[in-house]
Amino acid sequence: MTATTTLQAGTTDSPKLTRYREAERALFSAYGLAPTERFIDLAEPRLRLRILEVGSGQPVIFLPGTGGTGPYWSPLLRELPGIRSILVDRPGWGLSSPVDYRDRDFGRLTAAILRGTLDALGLDRVDLVGASIGSLWTLWLSRYEPERVRRIIHLGGSPSVHIPVPRFFKILTSPIGALIVRMPMSPKMLRSQLEAIGHGASLAEGKLDRFLPWRLAFANATSSMHHERAMAKALRVGDGWRPGFVPKDTDLSTFNHPVRMVFGSADPTGTVDLWREFATGLPHGELEVVEGAGHMPWWDEPAAVGRSVREFLTMG
Q1: C-alpha 295, offset from chain centre
Q2: Class of 5-313 in CATH
Q3: Cα–Cα distance for residue pair 177/171, rounded to 1 Å
Q4: 3-state DSSP call for residue 54?
Q5: Where are the domains positioned within the chain?
Q6: What burial class does residue 104 get, using C-beta atoms within 10 Å of its C-beta: 0-12 exposed, 13-18 middle, 19+ buried?
Q7: Whole-number mean pLDDT of the chain?
Q8: Which residues contact 81 (CB under 8 A, 6 or more apart)?
């Protein structure tokens, strides 16, 4: 493990990565946050992960969804004093190296990555916050390393056996997707994507003005979308997902940790009824609905989502 440093450009960074780091610092700074950075090297699977940390206190691991690394949590982190927020760049995202998902059991692989991460950080047991696909990582660690988990929070919808592969992922995994990941993302394209996942109202109100420059830098200055396409190709089977990627209904009763799901009513990944049924199927699951919020509800209603996260993590 390398030494922990403040967030800054590396001496060997390319001009593109330097621009990306500048966009990261700008977004963090806009919310009064000053993260530290470290890289950890895992042996199995062989992988280098980038970790950012904000604050001190109770350790909480944050696992983002598609299009997210540490900075995209910024509005929520500002609402969480007394928390040691540990922000993981998932493999292939941001500055973490990629991993090959082909011919690997997704649940066991992700649990192994998180186990190695906790070992490297010297953490025995943590709370977990996951968004979108990051929520699946939390569940699989809960299944295969239950003693390492305390409580779990899911923000927004995640892939489910009841939800067909989204149109975006179908396009991304097609031959056209190979062209898309080579094209620079434009502000118009990004706004269209955010509107499609339920953030149209927040865009109109200017709530995402700080998010937009960082997300454009993320898309255009890193190789993240190339790696996301490779992951999606490995996990998609027709209109559904490869077995072992998402839990089946019959699996839900085996996840024994307390889980709170915070779902925005404008999130198109599923419905309130679907996620209420999902939460009910968990032994200790509950659903909280944020009216009008989209797929990243902490950007639409940071104070409300932050209050829910603080309340849940301090129970028991």
Answers
A1: 11
A2: alpha beta
A3: 6
A4: strand
A5: 5-313
A6: middle
A7: 92
A8: 55
Strand, helix or coil for residue 43: coil
Contact present, 4 and 19 (Cβ < 8 Å):
no
**Token duo for residue 204:** 């109109």
pLDDT in tens, 130-184: 999 999 999 999 999 999 999 999 999 998 888 878 888 888 899 998 888 888 9
- Nearest C-alpha neighbor of 54 from the set 27, 76, 84: 84
Check: CB of residue 54 under 8 Å from CB of residue 82: no
Residue 68 in 3-state DSSP?
Answer: coil
Handedness of CA 109, 247, 276, 199 (dihedral sign): positive
pLDDT for res 284: 96
Q: How far apart are CA 48 and CA 38, in angstroms?
A: 10
CA distance 41 to 147: 23
